[in-house]
Amino acid sequence: MSADRYGLYSASFTHAGGSFDLTQLEGQSLSRNKAVRSVRPGGSLVATAHILSTANPRFSFRTTDLLAFFTASSGEMFLACSGGHVARYQKKLAGGAFASGSAHMLQTSSKGFLHVASIDAEVDGTDGASAVLEYIPLSTDGQALPFATTVSQSLSGAPAPAFSSQYYMGGVWNGSSQVTGLKRISFQPGVMFTANRTDGGVFPHYNASSIGGYNPGIGLTFLDLGLPNAIGSDYLAVVGAAIKGYLQRGTTAADGRIAVATTSHLKIACTDASWGPDETTVDNENDGTVTIGVMPTSKLTATLGVAIGG
Known about the structure:
Blueprint: E1 6-15, E2 18-22, E3 25-31, E4 34-39, E5 49-55, E6 58-63, H1 66-73, E7 78-81, E8 85-91, E9 104-109, E10 112-122, E11 130-137, E12 148-153, E13 167-174, E14 177-178, E15 182-188, E16 191-194, E17 210-214, E18 217-222, H2 227-231, E19 237-238, E20 243-249, E21 265-270, E22 273-281, E23 289-296, E24 301-306
């Protein structure tokens, strides 16, 4: 008996405003985060029973299609999935590519919460901007399983894998002024979702779970080692203006990028923040870099369809 093997396929999420599909997935994973009570009665050298006490499963999806998520979320960094999700796995075929018919695997939930864990872009990176989305499947009552795995499923009618969008680093602005020399940018929206268990049960449930706050951050890496002098501190200073990071939309047409003045790009911003240098590094004859940590005093929001600039 040979073991079945599976690869990626598309994922779908259903929310109050409809549904959206991630057809441009580059990776996904599932951590079940279970806690087990192992009972070892006095006098016994080994546990004689094991009981599942709690479980906090988390799906992680990696994609470079930022357009699909932010269109569905209207620029927010999260999406309450009142209709759940479907993660699909395509069965591989020995001696071929993929199996046909009812041979595939699904993991489905009826309730959940999807949010952006991180977005990263590096100017020299060939992969462009990439996002990690975390999905928290939630029980309907704390007792029901938060997701189910089923095999021998058909992918007929499911959205096929397809290209949707690609963004690249587009620069960062402090208010109306560009801060030049940017090599890398990282956004951490810091959505703190509290998944609660109540009234018994193994799993957190939807009606008892909410956003508890935000702990956003932006990481910036620059070539200019003297940037802390411009900031005004070697440790921490108030920005006093909006920090706006831009991601420039790519195109399959000549030159690979849509013009900066065209309203096709993505802006991720906070209204104010404190910032300061974290690390200064120089290796051999390479250019040195300084990393600047931005600590926003507002949540991060995304705006699609903008031109790049202050």
